[in-house]
Structure prediction request, 194 residues.
Amino acid sequence: MVEGALADLGLALTEAKAVLAKLQEIMVQSQTAEYAACHRVCPHCRVPQPVKDRRTRRLQTLFGTEEVEAPRFRVCQCRPLAPVVAAVSSPVCRLLTARGTPELERVQAELGARTSFQKAARILKTLAPASPGNHESVRTRTHAAALRLEAADRQAMAAVVASDTPRRRRAGRLSCSTAPMCARCRVTKCGNLR
Ligand SMILES: [Zn+2]
Prediction:
């Protein structure tokens, strides 16, 4: 750079978002294609299973919504007497167990817990080529994260109570709080009760 200004140094936010989005697209498509190719091979006779058809799936990530190929393979006939669970298998569909990546869900839930869902969606849209950039998605994922935390808390509490019941009976009380907490407090762990 022979001439220019301070603002011209480095990547601008819009350029960085475009680079990230393209990089993510290439990575996700390459990884899912490799995953499908590896799982096409029959684990018993090592022969590639025939392709039945080619479908596509969409995956929401922190850096954009990606469309990936999800080929379906006919299950190998090398074991005709073995119980057939399914005549057709789609490894990529099995891999994509949710509409969004765990990282996108975590970031949406964390932002949604700390500010309004609308503001959280705007922050994400400003800083990352995230998808989808609407507050409904942030709200849904914040509540989902809160439910998961609540279930984990209940499980941990049940384990503590089960292992410690005789002593606590003698003490005559349980110290664990069972009061409900709001979704935001669950995620941020601020401890405010509903
Ligand atoms: Zn086989």
Summary: Residues 108-146 form one domain. Confidence is low (pLDDT under 50) at residues 174-178. The pocket of zinc ion is lined by residues 42, 44-45, 47, 76, 78 (CB under 6 Å). The two ends are 57 Å apart (CA to CA).
